[in-house]
Amino acid sequence: MHIDGQCHCGFVTYEAEIDPEDVSICHCTDCQQLTGSAYRVTAGTPRASFRLTGGEPKLYIKTAENGRKRLQFFCPQCGSPVYTTGEGEDAEEIGIRVGTINQRRELRPRSQIWCSSALPWVDVGELPGRSRE
Question: Is the pTM of this model over 0.85?
């Protein structure tokens, strides 16, 4: 599926080819803090299928407890999270933040991760996809 999108102010824009089945919800505490919300919804795509078409995002590197680094890209003007990737072999996958995708109404999460970190008022069973750790 061809998608395009942008941050809230429109400075950072992109286009990509994604598999609409590769949309997931993450309940980890990092995603909660980075979004300021209960969870994050991401559409995955290979790096080769993603292309920036507008302004350059700013980078924040989050080092997890296990030492792995996640590169968080966001708009330097409005602060919207746009996408993430990793280092090494993890750099081959881009995670696009679904809220920035213009075609987001057509995308439905198919899986969930870190459900043990879900906030107590989030009913994981009511969310789409299968729960897994």
Answer: yes
